[in-house]
Specification:
The complex is a heterodimer of chains A (382) and B (133).
Chain A (H helix, E strand, L loop, with lengths): L3 E7 L2 H6 L5 H11 L5 E7 L6 E6 L20 H7 L5 E5 L1 H12 L8 E6 L7 H12 L6 E7 L2 E6 L4 E5 H6 L6 H5 L10 E4 L8 E5 L2 H12 L3 E5 L2 H28 L4 H8 L7 H5 L25 H12 L8 H5 L6 H16 L19
Parallel strand pairs in A: 2-4, 4-5, 5-9
Antiparallel strand pairs in A: 1-10, 1-11, 2-3, 6-7, 7-8, 9-10
Helix pairs in contact in A: 2-8, 3-4
Chain B lengths: L4 E6 L3 H10 L8 E6 L7 H9 L4 E6 L10 H18 L7 E5 L5 H18 L7
The chains are: A alpha/beta (382), B alpha/beta (133).
């Protein structure tokens, strides 16, 4: 079907106020729960503060309010949660593009049933590491991080709202020059609009207080139409001009991402010797494998006897990382979880992304977007 | 130091090729330790990496010519993995000349001899693999 574009906002006043850009996504969730389209909604709620995003399963639409509002400092992934624990539920999930990519790869591998999950996409320019965000706010905004009650990323700026109602903003570019700002893999990511989800929602090109929704699938279309007819969403047409603005923003962000990718994976890519120094710190805790959305094998080759080394020796990087690279590197979606959870701060997502890029250059396979499994698994004579 | 080569050879083609070389008394260096596998499609990256980790200076994989695989498409699957292995070995600083894969049929004793000779000479020039031991 041709993609459709509309502007929407929640009908419910409370949701409209607390939600981002009119709360259309939360309004849609309210529709999905109240009309029993799904068993539950999987979303993120604010925990202690704006740096603490906790995945939460909601089955009562009254509880939706606590999931409203953006949480850029909580880079969680939902795919593992669904494939490991929620396979038997009909779900609506709010997905960043990387969540949608992970879910799609898992769907292809029969770990998630596509008919049980509605993917409500959120446009994403990148997330921040919560601890780094706190440091950044202390250093550059010169504010106690606990005084921040809301954050937003718009027009290339990281904007914070304080308890006393004032705002402060700084350019993301400047922050990233200093080594702060978005997570490294987000800086390289080219996929800001989750067209691999049922709908993609955001504020680029939209009027103030309205969410711009791009409808990508028939399921997404029937959801949005149902929500409008049921009185949960108000909608109006998206003018051609808004689409042009949105495309322009997307293009400039993609260009920026490509520059970062060149920097991280080519010009400033660690040398073999620098990588050797990194590998010396690895303790084979296997957190990277546990956090990776694509690693789901019950029996993992990394834990077999023939890969055991002497106690107190770091694992052999070729047999450990090399094996994992050969198993899922070519499907790596660059979500950055491996790097986030590594207790020794090894910049893992760089090498996995690099191997995926090499594979892309050979086969043109884009993980999380393409409908087919990678050609590596094919039974054909190719 | 003499280079140590681990050679995975498929039962139906390359292992037969090695046998043909032997029957025809074609001399080749004794550096290769042959491991017979039923099909090159059985070989995966962990075998190659483990061989390097255990002290191989070079790893060779021989399979049937494309289109002639005894199991129809095993060698195609191996070829896709071999390309990925090349990409990964590069990331760890292992020279690409240390990993070699060829398609050698059971009748091609001479090709087997020539390949082993060339590979051993190349590895003698490169020297022993110092990493990962």
């Amino acid at each position: 079907m041709d993609t459709k574009h509309i502007l929407a906002r929640a009908h419910d006043k409370k949701i409209r106020e607390k939600g981002e850009c009119g709360g259309a996504v939360t309004g849609l969730f309210q529709y999905m729960l109240d009309e029993n389209i799904v068993d539950a909604i999987l979303a993120l709620r604010k925990g202690e503060d704006i740096y603490d995003g906790i995945p939460t399963l909601i089955d009562d639409s009254d509880d939706l309010l606590e999931t409203c509002g953006s949480l850029h400092c909580a880079p969680t992934m939902f795919a593992n949660i669904i494939s490991s624990h929620l396979r038997n539920m009909h779900l609506g999930v709010s997905v960043k593009p990387c969540d949608a990519m992970a879910i799609k790869e898992l769907e292809k591998r029969h770990q998630i049933n596509p008919r049980m999950v509605y993917k409500i996409g959120l446009n994403c320019g990148g997330t921040l590491n919560p601890l780094l965000a706190r440091q950044m706010i202390k250093l550059f905004y010169e504010i106690d991080p606990d005084d921040v009650i809301k954050e937003e990323i718009a027009k290339g700026k990281f904007i914070i709202e304080l308890r006393d109602g004032t705002f402060k903003e700084l350019s993301i570019d400047d922050l990233e020059e200093e080594g702060y700002g978005r997570r490294a893999n987000c800086q390289r990511c080219e996929i800001m609009i989750p067209r691999n989800a049922d709908i993609a929602s955001g504020n680029w090109g939209a009027d103030e207080g309205w969410t711009f929704i791009e409808i990508n699938t028939k399921r997404g279309e029937s959801l949005v139409e149902g929500a409008i007819q049921g009185g949960y969403l108000e909608a109006k047409n998206a003018h051609e001009k808004m689409l042009v603005i949105r495309d322009k923003i997307e293009d400039s962000m993609i260009r920026m991402a490509r520059k970062f990718r060149d920097k991280h994976l080519r010009s400033e890519y660690p040398s073999v010797e620098e990588w050797d120094e990194q590998w010396k710190r690895c303790i084979k805790c296997l957190a990277c494998r546990d956090a990776c959305p694509l690693c789901f094998c019950e029996e993992c080759e990394l834990e077999k006897d023939y890969f055991m080394e002497d106690d107190n020796c770091p694992p052999n990087p070729l047999t450990f990382q090399g094996t994992r690279l050969s198993h899922m590197g070519f499907s790596c979606i660059n979500c950055g979880q491996c790097e986030d959870v590594c207790p020794m701060d090894i910049p893992l997502s760089k090498i996995y992304h690099k191997i995926q890029r090499k594979y892309y250059r050979r086969t043109r396979f884009v993980p999380g977007i393409d409908d087919e499994l990678p050609p590596m698994y094919s039974g054909e004579k190719i | 130091m003499e280079p140590k080569i681990v050679g995975f050879t498929c039962n139906w083609c390359t292992y037969g090729g090695a046998d043909t070389a032997g029957t025809a008394r074609l001399q080749y260096p004794p550096n290769v330790r042959l491991i017979r596998i039923m099909c090159s499609g059985r070989v995966n990256a962990s075998l190659i990496f483990k061989a390097f980790r255990e002290g191989a200076d070079g790893v060779f994989v021989g399979g049937c010519h494309l289109g002639d695989c005894h199991y129809d498409s095993g060698n195609y699957k191996w070829r896709r993995r071999a390309e990925l292995i090349e990409d990964i070995l590069e990331e760890f600083g292992i020279e690409k000349e240390r990993f070699r894969f060829e398609w050698i049929s059971a009748a091609e004793g001479e090709k087997f001899q020539k390949t082993m000779q060339e590979f051993t000479d190349t590895l003698k020039d490169l020297g022993p693999l110092k990493k990962f031991i």
